[in-house]
Design goal:
Layout lengths: L1 H27 L1 E9 L7 E2 L1 H4 L3 E5 L4 E6 L2 E14 L6 E7 L2 E8 L3 E6 L6 E5 L1
């Protein structure tokens, strides 16, 4: 009986953890329009489409691809991965997303907003909207 209870608890924990991670993946699948980028403490700046003169959007697909567009022209097509990992800033476990050779902390993800922070000493924050 104790062994069955233990196995049930272990199974429940893994199932819950998997469904939470899968939920982030399903939430991110969509088209996101770049709103602005804010530089970190060592390099403070604000960049927007108006400031730099072009629009950018990213599309996360269900099959693990991210497609990047600049003024509606595809400029990159690569893979992305969402998984738990360690934050550069406070060494705590966070949801991370890796694409185009860089890893980011998912700071905010809901049905209208995506905010990611580069998981490195720069700490650049990028904000996207649906």
């Amino acid at each position: 009986m104790t062994k069955k209870l233990f196995l049930f608890i272990v199974f429940s924990v893994f199932t819950t953890a998997y469904s939470l991670e899968d939920n982030k993946t399903s939430q991110i699948i969509d088209t996101w329009t770049w709103e602005k980028t804010i530089g970190g403490e060592s390099n403070p700046y604000i960049s927007t489409p108006k400031i730099i003169g072009f629009n950018k959007k990213i599309v996360f697909t269900p099959d693990g691809k991210i497609i990047t567009y600049k003024d509606d022209i595809e400029i990159r097509n690569s893979l992305y991965e969402i998984k738990k990992g360690i934050s550069f800033f406070d060494q705590s476990e966070k949801e991370l997303i890796t694409f185009e050779g860089k890893t980011y902390i998912i700071e905010n993800l809901d049905n209208q907003n995506l905010t990611i922070i580069s998981n490195d000493s720069e700490g650049t924050r990028t904000i996207y909207k649906k």
